[in-house]
Amino acid sequence: MQPVENFAPRVLAWFDEHGRKNLPWQESKTPYRVWISEIMLQQTQVTTVIPYYQKFMTSFPTVEALADAEQDEVLAHWSGLGYYARARNMHKAAKMLVDEFDSEFPQTVEGVCELPGIGRSTAAAILSISRGVQAAILDGNVKRVLARFHAVPTWPGEKKTENAMWELAEHYMPSERCGDYTQAMMDLGATLCTRSKPQCLLCPLQSDCQARLSQDPTQFPIRKPKKAAKPEKSIQLLVLVNQQGQCLLEKRPSTGIWGGLWSLPELASDESVVLHIEQRFATQVSAVTPLSPFRHTFSHYHLDISPSKIEIADTKQVMEGEKYQWFNQQDAMAQGLPAPVRSILEQLN
């Protein structure tokens, strides 16, 4: 993988004419604003992120505002974006910035990497875009561009291959216009050098791109060796509704799936709903109405969910506390909820 000359100038010239320059986080490129956008954009499309970002920045315009917020409030703003560890780590990092760094981001990639939830590429993106630091990134878009340009013959997830690609990324990083170059490489991968149907004829790097010359650019990057099929799990989620029309939500543990979010009481797929409710909450069930079952897919398994609406007459035994709380429909939807739980509660309207 020998570097070529004139790589960065071609990318920057393309960016000047075709790059994205009006995204919300590009309006004021402070480290805080860039950081929030970079975390939200992990595993998430730009079009999905924009309304979340705008609402988030309205509620938490500064790192101090984010640090002062309750975790429930932060998670409520994240509800629907998924990968909730991102939001929990962001909240922890904000507190750390305020308490230990006088609300200022560290000056180096290594320093930013000490914050929870921030790795080398994200740290470099924050510093290069907001401060013009000469720090290369290697996110998914950049990996795809470099893997195709050099027709990298091995899977980029292998450590040896990844190290070689970091060397390329650092070699091509210019000494000037670092932020524009970082954004240009992201845009190039997101808009032209896409996973399928890359628009090679519009690419500023086409004349030297080894994947284009191979006649089949989509064979790069080399795909990860296939794993076995995802395992399948199944659960029941229970919508307990009292006579006032309120539903019972349960606070999830701070770690694990849906950590820190409000969810619905859960039980195994083969358990009796009525018996479980009567034993767990010491209350009588008035009616059980099955709701539409559906599948929710995580990165590492499929979850088949069978929800039911459970009407109960007496809520005195179902005590509120840190773990359980009754909410009306509007208040429930304002909490930090996993996407499947939000979908279930929407069925009640």
Describe the protein.
This protein is of the alpha+beta class. It has 2 domains: 7-219, Orthogonal Bundle (Endonuclease III, domain 1); 232-346, Nucleoside Triphosphate Pyrophosphohydrolase, CATH 3.90.79.10. It is built from 15 helices and 8 strands. The relative contact order is 0.11. The mean pLDDT is 93. Its cofactor is [4Fe-4S] cluster. It comes from Marinomonas alcarazii. Keywords: 4Fe-4S, DNA damage, DNA repair, Glycosidase, Hydrolase, Iron, Iron-sulfur, Metal-binding.
Describe the protein's topology.
Blueprint: H1 7-18, H2 31-41, H3 46-59, H4 63-68, H5 71-78, H6 85-100, H7 109-112, H8 120-131, H9 140-149, H10 159-172, H11 178-192, H12 210-213, E1 232-241, E2 247-251, E3 262-263, E4 266-268, H13 273-281, E5 285-290, E6 294-297, E7 302-312, E8 324-327, H14 329-333, H15 339-346
Parallel strand pairs: 1-7
Antiparallel strand pairs: 1-4, 2-3, 2-8, 5-7, 6-7
Helix pairs in contact: 1-11, 2-3, 2-8, 8-11, 9-11
